[in-house]
Specification:
The protein has 14 helices and 20 strands. It has a six-stranded mixed sheet with strand order 7-8-9-5-10-11, sandwiched between helices. A five-stranded parallel sheet has the order 17-18-19-14-20, sandwiched between helices. A hairpin with a 2-residue loop joins strand 10 and strand 11. The chain is an alpha/beta fold. The chain is globular. It is about 25% helix and about 20% strand.
Length: about 475
Amino acid sequence: MDTLLTLESAKLHYIGRSIENPHQIAIRQGITVVAGQNGSGKSTLGAIIERGRNLATNRIVTPDGGLVVKRIEFTDIHSLTGNKVEYHQQRYESMANDEIPTVGELFSDRIETPRWRELERTLRISHTIQKRINFLSSGELRKLLIAVALTDDDMPGLLILDNPYIGLDSRSRKVLDDILPELAAGGTSVMMMVCDPADVPDYADSLITMENMTLTGRYDRGESSLRDIAARLFDFAVDTSALPRPADRVLAPDAGEEIVRLESCTVRYASAVILTDVNWTIRRGERWALAGPNGSGKSTLLSLIHADNPQVYANKVSLFGRRRGTGESIWDVKRRIGYVSPEMHLYFNAGSCTALEVIARGLMDTVGFFTRLGERELTKARRWVRLLHIEDIADCRFTALSSGQQRMVLLARTLIKNPELLILDEPLHGLDSARKRAVRAIVNTLAARDGTTLIYVTHCPDEVPECVDRTLTLQSAQR
C-alpha cells in the first residue's frame, strides 16, 4: 500500500508532551491500529497527527502535502453543542437543560440526507433525534459521533478513532467493523487507537506499537498475527492480598437485608420514555450484572439508586431499608455507595487536583477544595496508588492524564471508601487488557472476602467478574 504520511522527526512534540520516534515510522493507507498500555502515548500521537503537523519541531511528511485529518476522541460532548454541561446530575434536572439542544436541532442540516438515514438505521440511533445531547448514553454518544464524522461534507483522508469500541453493544461493534473497511476502500484511511489486543480487528492492514511514550515498531498484515504482536505489550498484575480491609463497616450483617428495592419504576422526559415499570430487589452480598443494549436506560436506572435523579421521588425506591424521600439526605445515600461510570467520568471536574488528591477525596465524596485533606486520607490513597501500580502519575494533575489513567484513578477513588454497595458502570472503559484483569481480580476479592454488594454493567460478557451470578436485562423502552 502507498504511504499516507511519514513521521520523520526523532522526537515529536505537542503541548508539553513528546513522543520518541527512533524508527521514523511510516503510516500506510488503509486501516492502521495503534496499540499500547494506558499512558503509552496513543492519544498524544493522534493529537500530533491531527493538529501538530505544522509545528516547527515536528517533521511529518505527506506525499501530496494536503492530507485532511479528523480525530474522534469520544470524550467531550461540549465540542458538539457549544454548551457547557457543568455537572453530572444536570442531565436529570429538566430546568437546567433548557439551553442544551436535541440531536435533531444540532444536526438538522444532515439528518435528512440519504447517508445519515443509512447510518441512523444501521447504528440504531433514530430514537436519539429527539433527545437532548447530554441525555445520550455513552454508547449512543459514540455512535452519534461516528455518524457525524461519516456525514461531513468533506470526508477526511485519515480518520483517527480513539478507543472506538468501548461502550458499544455487540451489534454496534459489528456495524462499525462493517463500515471501516468500506471507508478504507473508498479512500478514507482509518487509524484506530486501542489498549486491548482483542480490539485489533482481523481486517487491519498495519499495527503500530507504543510503550512509554515511544513508537516501538510497525508491523504489516501477513508478517504474523497482528493481534498476537499487540498482546506482548500488556503485562500487569495486582496483589489482591494487599487490599485494605473494611474495618469501618460491619462485615456480617443479615444476609437477607434489602439494599435496593425498585417497584414499578418509570422515568420519562416529555414524550421520551426511558424506563417503564422496572422492578428490582437486591439483597446484601448479591452480585448483579445489569445488561441491555445502548440506550435501554441502564445509566438512568443507576441514577435512581445513586441519588442523582430527582425522579426517584416520583417512584417507589428504597435504599438500605428506607424509602427515598422520607427525610434522608443525598449524602446519607452516597456515603454508603461507591459509583463510577462513563458519564460520571465525562463530567468529572477535578480542577487542579492531583491524581492522589482525587483518590483521597473519595473518602469524603467531594472533589474540590471544600475540605482539607489530612494525613489519614492521603495515607489511604497512597495504599491504593501502590496497589494499582500508578505511582508514576500520583502527583500529576488529573486533567493531564490519559483517559485510561483517569479511569484507574476514578476506580481507586470509588474503592477507597470500602462501600457497602459498589456500582460499576462500564468500569473497564479505556483500560488496557492487563489492567482489566487486575480490576476484575480486585472486584472478585471484595465480593468473596468482604461480601460487598455489586451492580456491574458491561457490554462485553468476558469482562464480567466471575463472582457475578445474577442478571437483570433491560429492553429498549418504547420511544
